[in-house]
């Protein structure tokens, strides 16, 4: 993924992937929570995919290998479902993990960590979930995050940007693409970061929109040519879902219930002109702050933009400049 990938390139890529989903109608196996089943299945159908909510361990080993992608979501986890989740994740299909309310209990966190070890292609969560998961998963690396003090169940108490550094570290340590949803959806493979800024805040007031977005990522994952395109699948799915939310709001939604309806209609009706002109994905340029004198510092990372800051004890930051690479 190069810097020359412009906003226009992303718009075309999003349309390509949505068109491929519509043309190929990938079968997406969801082992997902009871709250999300309806909206996730409807979002998948509206996008052109074929949803299947199957969770009996008697069926999963036979069913999942015949599917194109898998979505595992721990939102209403119970002991009986965990083996099904593990079996679905181990079936050799590309799969996405949604660690809903990862910090809710030790049982849930352990389940998420054990699923993470089964190498999802993508993990999509809100900022609080990604922070909690990273802080446990990277405990040995002394992650500085602590999310439990403000834990509020399935809803985030953080902005997506708060989880960006932890998301990158988690991506590097697990090999998964990490997607942090929010006002900007950040997607990272540990090195590169793209931000998708489609969406409306009202989407947070519809239960299980995050779960539906994760299911849509699985559908997009099913149609990418290379597993290494997982980042594009996640970014485009999130942008397309957010765009459907924007159009849903413009279509006269008065609140969460009517937005839910309009969003699903908008997803179904998206056309090339709308997707290519309105998808907003861009490379996120991040700054590494180096507190030093410009002259005395040799940049250690050439892939980032480096911010040189002149700092004097007792006087704070005097000035700064950005070095682009
Ligand atoms: N403040 C916001 N502005 C615009 N879109 C948002 C905002 N917050 C969340 N979204 C969108 O809502 C969807 C669900 O994300 P989020 O609420 O973070 O997940 P979850 O439901 O898992 O907590 C995503 O498509 C995301 O882009
Ligand atoms: C409210 C709730 N409780 C258990 S799962 C669930 C839905 C969570 O959906 P989302 O993660 O998309 O907010
Ligand atoms: Mg969620």
UniProtKB/TrEMBL annotation:
Signal peptide: none annotated. Transmembrane segments: none annotated. InterPro entries: Hyethyz_kinase (IPR000417), Ribokinase-like (IPR029056). One of its GO terms (molecular function) is ATP binding. It catalyses: 5-(2-hydroxyethyl)-4-methylthiazole + ATP = 4-methyl-5-(2-phosphooxyethyl)-thiazole + ADP + H(+). GO terms for biological process: thiamine diphosphate biosynthetic process; thiamine salvage. Pathway: Cofactor biosynthesis; thiamine diphosphate biosynthesis; 4-methyl-5-(2-phosphoethyl)-thiazole from 5-(2-hydroxyethyl)-4-methylthiazole: step 1/1. Gene3D superfamilies: 3.40.1190.20. Keywords: ATP-binding, Kinase, Magnesium, Metal-binding, Nucleotide-binding, Thiamine biosynthesis, Transferase. The keyword ATP-binding applies. Its EC number is 2.7.1.50. It is an enzyme of class 2 (transferase). Its cofactor is Mg(2+). Thiazole kinase involved in thiamine salvage pathway. Belongs to the Thz kinase family. HAMAP family: Thz_kinase (MF_00228). This is Hydroxyethylthiazole kinase. It comes from Oryza meridionalis.
């Amino acid at each position: 993924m190069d810097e020359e990938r412009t906003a226009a390139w992303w718009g075309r890529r999003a349309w390509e992937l949505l068109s491929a989903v519509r043309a190929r109608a990938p079968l997406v196996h969801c082992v997902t929570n009871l709250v999300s089943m309806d909206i996730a299945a409807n979002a998948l159908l509206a996008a052109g995919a074929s949803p299947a909510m199957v969770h009996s361990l008697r069926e999963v080993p036979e069913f999942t290998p015949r599917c194109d992608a898998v979505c595992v979501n721990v939102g209403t986890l119970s002991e009986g479902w965990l083996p099904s989740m593990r079996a679905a994740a181990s079936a050799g299909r590309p799969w996405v993990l949604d660690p809903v309310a990862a910090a809710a209990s030790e049982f849930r966190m352990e389940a998420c960590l054990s699923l993470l070890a089964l190498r999802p292609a993508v993990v999509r969560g809100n900022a609080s979930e990604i922070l909690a998961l990273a802080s446990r998963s990277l405990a040995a690396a002394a992650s500085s995050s602590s999310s439990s003090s403000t834990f509020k169940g399935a809803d985030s108490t953080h902005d997506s940007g708060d989880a960006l550094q932890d998301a990158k570290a988690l991506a590097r340590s697990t090999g998964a693409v990490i997607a942090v949803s929010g006002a900007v959806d950040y997607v990272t493979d540990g090195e590169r970061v793209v931000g998708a800024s489609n969406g409306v805040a009202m989407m947070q007031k519809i239960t299980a929109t995050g779960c539906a977005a994760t299911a849509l990522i699985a559908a997009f994952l099913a149609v990418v040519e290379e597993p290494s395109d997982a980042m594009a699948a996640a970014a485009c799915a999130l942008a397309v879902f957010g765009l459907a939310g924007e159009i849903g709001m413009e279509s006269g939604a008065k609140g969460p219930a009517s937005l839910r309806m309009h969003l699903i209609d908008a997803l179904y009706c998206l056309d090339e002109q709308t997707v290519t002109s309105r998808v907003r994905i861009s490379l996120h340029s991040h700054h590494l702050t180096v507190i030093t004198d410009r002259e005395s510092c040799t940049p250690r990372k050439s892939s980032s933009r480096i911010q040189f800051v002149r700092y004097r004890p007792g006087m704070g930051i005097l000035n700064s400049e950005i070095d682009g690479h």
